[in-house]
Amino acid sequence: MLENYPKTVVIQDGTRLTLRPLVREDEARLKEFFATVPREDRWYLKEDVSDPRVIEAWVRGINYERVVPIVAEVDGQIVADATLHRRPFGGSRHVGKIRVVVSPRYRGMGLGTWMVLDILNLAMETGVEKLIAEAIAEEQAPVIAGLKRLGFVEEARIADYARDPQGKPHDLVIMVRTFYPDWGTF
Q1: CB atoms inside a 10 Å sphere around CB 98
Q2: What is the CATH code for 7-178?
Q3: Which SS3 state, helix, strand or coil, does residue 48 take?
Q4: What is the pLDDT of residues 100-158, one digit of tens each?
Q5: If you count Cβ atoms within 10 Å of the first and of the last residue's Cβ in the chain, which end, N or C, has fewer?
Q6: 17 CA to centre of own chain
Q7: In sequence order, what are the residues at sequence separation of 6 or more whose Cβ sits closer than 8 angstroms to the Cβ of residue 148?
Q8: Model pTM?
Q9: CA distances (Å), origin 117, targets 27, 89, 99, 161
Q10: Burial track 122-161 (b if 16+ CB lie within 10 A, e otherwise)
Q11: Quick one: what percent of the chain has pLDDT higher than 90?
């Protein structure tokens, strides 16, 4: 599945970026990338990426059968991270989850769309039939709109699921993109 990498994409300002799988040697660059993510954005994430031990565990535990991490880089610097999470067995092995984080400097220029499209292709290549994305309703409205443009639909909304650093509750939107085995890839 990873034989199609590296890939080159061009975003709206003309910048050429390389998409490729994360490797163990990326540990320092991944730490640097997550340090660029504003504190107020990090509370959306499942883990505390400001803790170097979290990044160390990710890169040392790379297992492409469970999690496929794809990074976007410019001049050797990681500027986005997207992951496809899968279960290798069990009743939900046909379901994947997507997570995408883009550096503030590259937001609004199409890089997030490129990252999602790449994960969509990986999902189809690996037999994923349902791809799930989660977003916080109010704060991530542009993300939700972008996912809808790429075929995701809102399946559920959980009221007051998350609390921001000030304790204010926020709704979680669960979006799903369904694939069918005979579709092929983009």
Answers
A1: 23
A2: 3.40.630.30
A3: coil
A4: 999 999 999 999 999 999 999 999 999 899 999 999 888 888 899 999 999 999 999 99
A5: C
A6: 16
A7: 154, 175
A8: 0.91
A9: 24, 25, 12, 27
A10: bbbeeebeebbbbbbbeebeebbebbeeeebeeeeeeeee
A11: 76
